[in-house]
Design goal:
The structure is a single chain. By secondary structure, this protein is of the alpha/beta class. It has a single domain, classed as Alpha-Beta Barrel (TIM Barrel), CATH 3.20.20.30. Helix content is 44%, strand content 15%. The strands form 2 sheets. It has an 8-stranded parallel β-barrel with strand order 1-2-3-4-7-8-9-10, surrounded by 7 helices. A two-stranded antiparallel sheet has the order 5-6. The radius of gyration is 19 Å and the shape is globular. The relative contact order is 0.14. This is G6PDH family F420-dependent oxidoreductase. Pfam families: Bac_luciferase (PF00296). InterPro entries: F420-G6PD/mer, F420_G6P_DH-rel, Luciferase-like_dom, Luciferase-like_sf. Keywords: Oxidoreductase.
């Protein structure tokens, strides 16, 4: 199993994110995954740099670690042709270390261009399907045109392509999206240890990597970790149907006012006990994960890297893999 580190672009500025990626490579992580947001979830997080600029800097500052967007929405805020060009450039800069993670997006980030955010989840998935088709078309090289239900491309050519097409991981929060990932993607991306989701992916013919994202909060005592997580990451307990629909950080702040410390502590491991983290990771592995990204919302990332190296790396890699 590969272990990754989630770069929380809503909570750190671009310089800090690049430094964390460098530190993650030194700590032994196999990949870094970065969120691609225009807004933070909460004003208290205070950041939302352009993920693609950050990834370019990381590619230049690292040598081994793989890079992943977790995830980009190539349908509203971005045209898929632009994402195809960005992904190809990053793959060249990183010498083949990049995987494009895509999803149907959240209103929080996509409504900002004024074109609206589709009300229907099915329409969002249909748009994503066509967007991936456009991206793959442009990855073939040469001048390409496309006229579909949602997107048009007129004689576009990407001149700087990597030696191999960029792998595409598709995010899924339900069985329909998991089937879509199997049909148009090279990998599955998900945030909960849901064996049924992975099963739907496999039943639809999906044979690629399964990226699971696991949230935790490290601090030297549990209460400090819980309070830090509640201050910046209480939105995570609201559920995907809420996360996809609210339009502004203020909306997320209002929706999460009733989230208590005990709700956060029940949602993900908080504090210094590695047994809790390993138990949570085991649930992901048992659900079918073979690429585990760790999102740490504790108060000090520097302390977290030492903790990971000393307490987690060997134990996580010793977890039995699933076939």
């Amino acid at each position: 199993m590969e272990i990754g580190y989630k770069l929380m672009a809503e909570a750190f500025g671009p310089i800090d994110l690049v430094a964390q990626a460098v530190r993650a490579e030194r700590a032994g992580f196999d990949f870094v995954e970065i969120s691609d947001h225009f807004h933070p979830w909460l004003e208290a997080q205070g950041h939302a740099p352009f993920a693609w600029s950050v990834l370019g800097a990381i590619a230049a500052r690292t040598e081994r670690i793989k890079l992943l967007t977790g995830v980009t929405c190539p349908t509203v805020r971005y045209h898929p042709a632009v994402i195809a060009q960005a992904a190809a450039t990053l793959a060249v800069l990183s010498q083949g270390r990049f995987t494009l993670g895509v999803g149907s997006g959240e209103r929080l980030n996509e409504h900002i261009v004024g074109d609206g955010f589709p009300e229907s989840p099915k329409k969002r998935q249909d748009m994503l399907r066509e967007a991936v088709e456009v991206i793959r078309l442009l990855f073939q090289g040469g001048y390409r045109s496309h006229r579909g239900e949602f997107f048009e491309v007129a004689r576009a050519r990407i001149f700087d392509l990597p030696d191999e097409p960029v792998p595409i991981a598709v995010a899924a929060g339900g069985p329909g999206a998991a089937r879509l990932a199997a049909e148009v993607g090279d990998a599955l991306f998900f945030t909960e240890p849901d064996a049924a989701l992975v099963g739907a992916y496999r039943d639809a013919g999906g044979q690629g990597p399964r990226y699971g994202e696991m949230t935790m909060a490290y601090a030297q005592n549990e209460q400090t970790a819980v309070k830090a997580a509640r201050a910046t990451t209480r939105w995570a307990v609201l559920g995907w149907k809420v996360l996809a629909e609210l339009p502004t950080p203020a909306s997320f702040a209002a929706a999460s006012t009733t989230v208590r410390d005990e709700d956060v502590a029940a949602a993900f491991p908080c504090g210094p006990d590695p047994d809790r983290v390993v138990a949570r990771a085991r649930a992901y592995v048992e659900a079918g994960t073979d690429r585990l990204a760790i999102l740490n919302c504790g108060p000090d990332p520097d302390f977290f890297f030492d903790y990971y190296t000393d307490e987690l790396d060997a134990r996580l890699r010793a977890l039995p893999g699933q076939v």
